[in-house]
Structures are given as C-alpha cells and as structure tokens.
Model the fold of this input.
Amino acid sequence: MCGIICYVGKQPALPVLLEGLKRLEYRGYDSSGIALLEDEQIRRFRAVGKIRELETGLIEWTSDAKTGIGHTRWATHGKPCVENAHPHSDCAGEIFVIHNGIIENYLALKQELITAGHRFLSETDTEVVAHLIEEACREHADLEEAVTRALARVRGTFGLAVLSTRHANSIIIARRSSPMILGISDSGTFAASDVSALVAHTKQVVYLQDDDLAVLTPDGYRITNLHAPAEVNRQEQTVDWDVDAAEKQGFEHFMLKEIHEQPEAVRNAMRGRLVPSEGISVLGGLAGVREQFLRMEQLILVSCGTSFYAAMLGRYILEFCTDFRVEVDVASEFRYRRLNLRDNTVVLAISQSGETADTLAAIREAKRKGALVLGLVNVVGSNIARETDAGIYNHAGPEIGVASTKAFVSQLTILYLLTLYLARHQHMSVTDGQEFIRELESIPDKIEQILAKSAQIQQVARRYAQFRDFMYIGRKFNYPIALEGALKLKEISYLHAEAYAAGEMKHGPIALINPDFPSVCLATQDSTYDKMMANIQEIKARCGRTIVVGTEGDAQLPALCDDFIGVPASSELFAPLLTVIPLQLLAYYIALENGCEIDQPRNLAKSVTVE
Ligand code: F6R
Done:
C-alpha cells in the first residue's frame, strides 16, 4: 500500500523523509520518490525497488532543503517504473503531488487536460491531480484555493500532499477516505499516511478527517474544509505506541490488522466498478477482450490454496447467476490433465501475489492451448499480471500476514462483480442487477458488525484452543468457506482440521466424531439450512461438540449447538462474504491462545515461487 511522509521545519528534510520512508516499508511498495523545495526550486528523485535504491541514487545529493515530501508507491495504475513513481508534477515543474488512493474519474479528466494542452508523463491516476491544480492556478493565484478547486473535480479517494514553488515553506495536505495524520514537534511539522512514519519524531498527532485540507508550516498547521473555507479545530492526540506497534496500527499481528481491513478491501474492490442505476458492473481491465470474453464457451478458474477456494466459490456463484460452463482446477494439477479445451475457452488465474509458480505454469499451458487467459491479481506488475491477456486488479493493498485474509475477501468481491458483468449480459434483469448491487454494497457494514463481535469469538476460541482436531462443514456457497476456515486454522495454529461438504459426513468422516473432535458448522438460514441442521443433530447424537456460524436471531441453533456465532442476515448468495470472517477470527484467536507465530507460520512463504 502506498505511503506518505512530509516534513517542513528547521532540520534538513532529506534524512527525515528517508527515515520516514523506511518506516513505511512494511506496508509493501515497489518504488519510491522524494521532492525537496529549496531556493524556490523543487528537486525530485525517484527509484524503482527498495528505499536503498533511492538512497544510493541520492548519494551525490547535498541538500539543505527544510521542506519536502516522500512517497512509497504500491502500483495500482501503471506498472512499477520510475515514470510512474511519485511525486508527479505539472507541466511547468512547479507543482508536485504525492497521493494514496484512487482517482476514479482520472481517464475522463486526463483526456480533458490533454485537450487543454497538458503533457502527461506517467500512466498514473495521480498525475491528473498535479495538472488539475496547474489548470486551477490559471484562474486562482492562491495555491490553496487552486487545490480546493482541483479536488472538487476529483471522484475517488485520496490522502495527498502538494509541494509547490508557489507556496514557500509550506505543504498542502488533503484527505478523503485515505488516512492522513499530522505530527507536531518543536523541530517542525510532519504529515504521514501512517503513524509509524511519525512516532520516531513526535507523539503529538492530529488525525485529519474526510475532506480536511491542512496547510503545514514550520511553526504549525491550519486546517480548513474542502467545502468551506472556515478554519476547523481537530483535537491533538498523544500516540502511546512504539514504532513496532505503530506499523501494525495497534493490532497485535498483521493478520488481525488485515482481518479488520476487510470492509475497506471490499469497498476498494468495488470502487468505481458499479453503476447502480443500470444494475451493472464495469470492469475496465476487460474492456479490450470484452467481445471474446462474452463469446466464451467454457470458463476455467485456476489458482492455489486460499485463492483456489475463492475460485470454488466463483464457480458456484457464476453457475447460479449465468449459463456459462464453469470449471475450477488447482493450478498445480491443471497441466497434468489431458486438456481438451473447447473453442473459445477462457482461463482465469486468481492469485494474490501474482507470482505463484504453479499458477504461472497453468496459464502458460492454457496459452499454449489457445485459451484467452485472464488474471485476477492483487500485485500490479507481477508476473501473472504481465503474462495474462487482460485482467482485474484487487486494489486490496499489500497483504503482509502469510495467511491470506483480506485478499481472499477481495477476490470473492471481484468474482461477484464478474458474475454481475456476465449475468447482465445474459438473462439477469436490471432490477435483479440493482438488487445484486444493493446486497454487495451492504457487505462492508455487515463485516464491521461481525468484527465488533471479536471479543465473543475470542471467548469461543479460548474454550476450544486445547483441542487438536477439528471438522469444518458447509454446503453449497458455504462449502468453499468451510475449506478456507479449516486451512486458516491449519496454517497458523498447526492443528489438524478437515473440511468436508456437509453431505459427505455420512460417507466416512462422521466416524471421526467424538467429544474431542469439535465441528465448526456453517448453517446460515438458506436453502441448505434444514440439511445442515440434520448434520448438526447427527454430530450431537455422537457426543460431538459444535461451533455453529449461523444467522443472527436464529431461534433454534443456539439451543442445539455448543457455541453459536451469528452473522447478519443476507441472501444466501452473499453469505460467504460474512461467514468467512468468524472463521478467520476463530483461527487467529486459537493460534494466539496456543502462542503460535501468527504472521510467519512455520514452513510457509507469502509468495510460493517454486513448483
Ligand atoms: C493461504 C495462502 C495460500 C495462498 C496460495 C496462493 O492463507 O495464503 O494458500 O493462497 O499460496 O497464493 P497466491 O494467491 O499468491 O497465488
């Protein structure tokens, strides 16, 4: 995820910026850059790769500049390269911008600015902001006013900083749905997207709120609102975290932080991709292959691990809502099959990292056989992103915990968008499309309601942490979630967990049930509810313990099972986006109880680049 650090004060800015950028490294990034304002001139330096590449490039630089901005970029629009790294500037090289977030309407704005004579040097959405400010400066000499006018044209999210030769000894900051924090100290004023970049310098901070605009000077700051010029007061707060904790923003582990980032991951996956009035989704990354995609006779989803379980759910929802033939395959097995692909086969590779060797091998094989190969990838510019014909990015931000959580939920969200995209091309009506969007858009708030029950789930985890074996069962849309829940437990707590389609229980696994072998059952109120209820009865009849994830307000299950965790009601199609959350938390808290190394479990790697 991109990171921002800014400083205006009495000390040389360069070391402050470099130190701040290093503090932001944990967020994941692929390039970085700084800009310094000195003697009414701005100097910029950018580099691809680690901060040490930036430092190496800066070795010859001497600078007494006391005002500067720095950025780590995690590519979303355009590959990781120097031209796409921030800061971006206007045509005259007088206005430099760093930005976190996504400018949704950047293509339309870019076209308009090009027509007005602006020259663009990058593929990013951010560069549009620098040119918009330049354009606004033509009418409003005051930079602050120009920034306000420019941001009024922007749709999307931003946490940004503007450095300009027009505004000596100051930096302008603004935010909308992307965090920005000011840091106050005797040696100057700071701003960052993340407290971890500030705490080495100061613990006095101000959290900006949406649509705040702040002007930083060496002696302090002034905050106004993008919609009203009157000054606003924001309370100064004292951070009581150390640097290490700040990186995790107060969470004990990255995994827990990422579990809590899931409402945002869903929102980011949907952002700019839904048109509620028409009940459709717009997937810009597929525009170039749209006709071929819609003509497909067969869709094969390939992936590994958690991404494979996303694919499994993808098949259920695509089959439920469209007439396309959909298959799924574990990427590592795909190439062993005697593949007899139909004409017009599309293979969709799903991968958080975009580097998984098995998935890469599968897409190479699919290409060899003439399939159109698409990617659903989180890491921009990764191998899978580059080797596929077209694709969709998650925009979930980097996932640092080895056990995948927010990337999974983001993958599911995009598979829903893809389903809507295809279904509306077939028989789904406008009103059904609108209802689909309403359901999807209600998910982030519902996830937040489940996260608010973390303490209850932790209590359940405490009661089960001493067991060594677990069974996970679910049916239909909840079956892949049972598999994913069991995988989470295995990965981070090293406990034995089996997952089955609940109907399979009676065909063998029920033999395992005894009081020391608890079952986690997914039993939301849906078309499989009665059958799940029967499974739970069968387990109880064999003295098995049951943890049930069901629908809040269920009148029967809490009395029948040992522990009940409720999720908000939703239609069964969307329930998996909710039922997975308690399973992630259950796995996390059981691992925590057992003192396991949660973010880096033994034997596992975040990116599996060997076959
Ligand atoms: C599980 C997990 C792995 C990955 C798998 C595929 O928590 O993270 O199972 O899902 O290695 O990785 P990607 O999605 O990067 O291809």
Notes: The chain has a mean pLDDT of 94. Residues 248-443 form a domain with the Rossmann fold fold (CATH 3.40.50.10490). The pocket of fructose -6-phosphate is lined by residues 304-307, 351-353, 356, 359, 403-404, 487, 491, 608 (CB under 6 Å). The radius of gyration is 25 Å.
